[in-house]
Amino acid sequence: MNGLLILIASPSGGGKTTVIRRLIEKFPDKFVYSVSATTRESRPDEIGGKDYLFLSVEEFQKRAQNNQFLEWEEVHGYYYGTDLEFINRSLKSGKNVLLDLDVNGSLNVAKKFDGKVITIFLTPPSMDELINRLKNRKTDSKEEIEKRLTRIPKEMEKSKQFDYIVQNDNLETTVNKVLDIIFNFKY
Question: What global pTM score does this model have?
Answer without folding.
Answer: 0.82
